[in-house]
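Hi,

I'm pasting everything inline rather than attaching a file, because the server keeps stripping attachments. The sequence lines come first, and each chain or strand is labelled.
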Amino acid sequence: MIDALPLAVTLPLIGAFAVTVSPLHARGLGLMAAVLTVASALSVTATVWSDGVLRADLGGWGVPLGIALEADGLSAAFLAMANTVALAVSVYAGGYFKQESARHFWPLWLLLWSALNGLFLAADLFNLYVTLELLGLSAAALGAITGTREAVAANLRYLLVGLLGSMSYLLGVSLVYAAYGVLDIGLVAEAIEPGPIAWTAMTLMIGGLILKAALFPMHFWLPPAHANAPAPVSAALSALVVKAAFYLALRLWLDVFAPVLNEAAANLLGILGAAAVVWGSWRALRAERLKLLAAYSTVAQMGYLFIAFPLLAATPPGLARDNLLAAVVLLALTHGFAKAGFFLAAGMVQKTAGHDRIDDLGGAAQALPAATFAIGLAGVALIGLPPSGTFLAKWVMLEQAMILGLWWWLVVMMVGTLLAAAYIFRVLSRAFNREPTPYRFVNDARTELPALLLGLIATFGLGIAAQPLWVLLEQGAFG
Amino acid sequence: MNALLTVFDLLLTLTLLGLALVTVTSREPRRAVILFIAFGLLLALVWARLRAPDLALAEAAIGAGLSGALMLAAARRASGRRTSPAEGSDAEDAP
Amino acid sequence: MTDQVLYAQLLYGGSGIILVLLGLWSFLVHAALLRKLIAINLMGAGVFHILVAIAYRGIDTPPDPVPHALVLTGIVVAVSATALALAFGKRLDQVDD
Amino acid sequence: MIRPLEHILIPLGLLAVGGLLGWSFFLAVTGDAGERLAPIALARVPDSGVSNPVTSVLLNFRAYDTLLEFAVLLAALLGIWSLGSSGTGFQPAASVLDGMVAGFVPLLILSAGYMLWVGAYAPGGAFQAGALLGSAGVMLALAGHRNAGLPSEGRLRILVGLGVFVCALTGLLLMLFGDGFLTYPAGFAKWLILTIETAATLAIGATLAAAYLGGRPAAHPTTGETA
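And the predicted assembly:
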């Protein structure tokens, strides 16, 4: 019997062991593990697509005693995005890291990957805690891999904040177990009732995840940590790791705490999201370095995702709410592809130019056409221009905000979009400020093609071909 | 018997909380770590009282023992580094 | 559940909550890495203490093994995180020197 | 001196949080959760292959958690190693300490083996045994042994990944040729658990000792490794 659910978590673990044991072959073994992991994860998504929700009872005990893995449309969508991005990051890293840093990168990277897949597939509240810790530890370790003062200091702070977040989450889980006596998400959802216990548990768990998702004003740790990591790591941290915390917050919101939700909590999340959009975009506009710009842009983009909570809370169940949910997921996925592509391309610029100061980028477009093009494509998706997935997603969100009469969310999203356009065009105008000279479009296929491909997916793939996402989410994600 | 146990529980809890309080309020790194180790050992004792001997063993060996050893090494470095000028305020040697 | 058990659960669980708050306070107000780590370990100990308290079912009834297993997992995670954070701190000292 | 944030605002906030927590916890404990998972778990212990309930949960009912936990330990150590080599060891210890260590270390290793074996039916198990092995390493390091008694880097790398590898491989083999991921066939549970626990004990001991050294083991003279 082959069950793709545990494979998606276990294959990267076996891969991590293999690269730990033979660091000299880290790249070859790592890429092999990466390909196998992607294959198993995509087969999970494909099976959910065709057959519906997948579930595996690990250990054969069944709930409530054992732990189950479960993939519905929502997990399958995030799983597919994360694994595609992770494959691109792996290919890029194969060209980016040289021998000595490669041997440190690969095992930690595969452990992080395993944690991501484990988190998207977990159906048990405590198991989620363990995946959160694995994710946090491996992410901080990867972020500090260069060993420079800035990177280590920033990632130490990230590690500590992450620990605080998971501690808060675990406290919430303890309360849930004390009150309801079960840990499986489905069983907790059945048992939960409105009241102070559910309230406190929700605040603790979602509060902890907000720290990890870098929602304003808890975003302070993100820009230095993401801007000082090596490019492939920045891409993974910004595109995937914070997104995993958001996914879990959304999952808890939709599945576990659905009976106890209220508008005040949703509005609070929305207000913080709005502040994140404005503040993050503004700081991105003022950033002096390309990677710092990208990191602040992540703060802003995470904000959009949290604006969805008040909209979701105000929309009655039905087609409109399903569309809204799909739009939010589309926004998250598009940002994953776009931000990863942006960081990978920025890494090429940094490596070629020896720095990533935006004002001194003159001529980068001529020296690195593919990287600049990737930044442009990712930029289209970050701003939300057509035909990107962001455009479609924001359109649905704006429409719903108008129907609900919640025009202030509309204003915030408009302001954010204008600021995003400003910071992206600022980068592009610097990159194109020299007379064109003929160069090759692609200089180093291994590092430039992944960035380009991610940009293409973000702008065209998810924009023009967004329909399949709606089909996928019909598998258990729409209420 | 029950009354005795009640009093014992209360004393144990108060000692544990008192130890935690002096641990977090002590400024000198080495002292704080040693208090933390003592706290971990007492916690292990409390868990043995709560019929969790597996956890008592693990907490004594890992929570107090190995975490403590790791922190002691760090505390030694910390006090080694600031032998010379300022022994002063705790907020100064920020990470 | 007898009053004796309820009393123990509330007493020890309540002290677990106090430990969490004490650790959180110390984490927020102290800047030194070592004090932050002690604080976060204390918070962890508080959460574990709550779990051990709810697992307790009386002096002669076997306790609930599930929270015990969760705590054991938590202890190992805590020592891993502590070791990694201390290594970061050591590296910072080295770069500074 | 009174600092308003530190002495007033944060404590007040924490008091509010504490009140909410205490209230919820009181309601949760006095509510109708009944005996939670205790009766179900205890009833299944006889089928788990071991008679210590905590070991049953850790290595059978919730073995998947434990697999990820091994991965957390490995991640922490790999993170420590990525930051450079361990640098200067400790000062060689005075002879008295050295003598004590010479007596203590074998005792710790023996107790670790005992703890591992006894974990099947009494308090103990892989984590406690691994911790004892780790403390043996710490003692050796304190006594001035540069590598805390750990093997050369090549073997050490195998050792620290052993918990993840053996547990994951067992899970996968049981999935491919048995009833499902980490689903032990009747009659084999005891031995499979013991196998995983043995690997885990070695891995935990080696990882904790290596983490104490705080960096990759000092280069072996023949390999000429540089950080």
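The two ends of chain A are 32 Å apart (CA to CA).

If the labels don't parse on your end, tell me and I'll reformat.
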